[in-house]
Amino acid sequence: MKKIETSTARQRLLKSNNKGSQGELRGRFLVTLCALIMIAATISITAFLTVKGLQSFLVNGVSPIEFITSSDWNPTSSKNPQYGALPFIFGSLAVTFLSALVAAPLGIGGAIFMTEVTPSWGKKILQPVIELLVGIPSVVYGFIGLTVLVPFIRNTFEAPQAGFSLLAGTIVLSVMILPTITTIATDTMGAIPDSLREGSYALGATRWQTIRKVLIPAVLPSLLTAIVLGMARAFGEALAVQMVIGNVHDLPSSILDPSATLTTIITLNMGHTAYGSVENNTLWSMGLILLIISFLFILIIRFLSSRRKI
């Protein structure tokens, strides 16, 4: 009887092992398939955008130097069409860096508040606020900016173009990238081992001296990564910025002047151009510039990640 029970248990175990092996194979196949799909999608999008983006230069004869350095954009002129994208490249970079200048101190400060100053209740209050900011659609940010921010700038600073300005785009983007910077900075600060804090306190340092001279330097590459990720998010934003920035073809001379970005010009004009026309191809070239700069952001992030100490 005992021999029969042992034999049955062995059969069940062998059957279970066989099922386990099949499950391992299925799981491995599924995750490999997911990875291959992601790689194929990325390569396909990059290749497609590269081919489309180069058509204006290789097929239509638009000078790439003029495209990047000229500030004259008049593609609809029948006599002398001009394809200078410098104002849009400048606008994209300007709102990206300015929004990072505003959002980075706020995000890192909020992270320090949640992890070092009041970790018990600070996270309970700020974390839902950050999650709420993440969940708000970009069109709502743009609508609030259009309704509140643009009139405020117009009335307060007497800005031209009724308040549509680089400043309005910067403020809207600052709020939009704040959750990204805050979340990553909070996780980074939370991962610091307590031994660093305890060692600093043991040497007689105060809390602020510990934060400023020990903790922040220890996680500086990760904090910079959070900022760069926020900048990458800001650089690709289109709808909210389009609603408040003014969308003009000129270079702004001050932060109160209207401007335009690569994304806003693409979204505004893509539906009004014939597929395959020179203007349509130049919009694809702007998309290619966006992709190249996004790759640069990724390279910076990977470089900073390789310098992490914690």
Write structural notes for this entry.
With 310 residues, the protein is an all-alpha fold. It has 2 domains: 45 residues; 235 residues, MetI-like (MetI-like fold), CATH 1.10.3720.10. The protein contains 12 helices and 2 strands. α4 packs across α6 and α9 packs antiparallel against α12. The model has no long low-confidence stretch (mean pLDDT 87).
List keywords for this structure.
310 residues; mainly alpha; 2 domains; 2 strands; globular; transmembrane; phosphate transmembrane transporter activity; transport; Phosphate transport system permease protein
Task: Describe the secondary-structure layout.
Elements: H1 2-58, H2 64-69, E1 73-74, E2 82-83, H3 86-117, H4 122-135, H5 138-157, H6 166-190, H7 194-202, H8 207-218, H9 220-236, H10 239-244, H11 262-269, H12 278-306
Helix pairs in contact: 1-12, 3-6, 3-9, 4-6, 5-6, 6-9, 7-8, 9-12, 11-12
Tell me the strand percentage band. under 5%
Q: How can the largest sheet be summarized? A: 2 strands, antiparallel
Rg, please?
26 Å
> What's the total helix number?
12
Number of domains: 2
Number of strands: 2
Structural class by helix and strand composition: mainly alpha
Strand neighbour order, sheet with most strands: 1-2
Instruction: Write down the CATH topology of the largest domain.
Output: MetI-like fold
Uncertain segments of ≥5 residues (pLDDT<50)?
none
Q: Secondary-structure element order, as H and E?
A: HHEEHHHHHHHHHH
Mean pLDDT across residues:
87
Identify the CATH homologous superfamily of the largest domain.
Answer: MetI-like
Query: Outline, from the CA principal axes?
Result: globular
Helicity level, as a percent range?
A: over 70%
Distance between the termini: 60 Å
What is the correct CATH architecture of the largest domain? Answer: Orthogonal Bundle
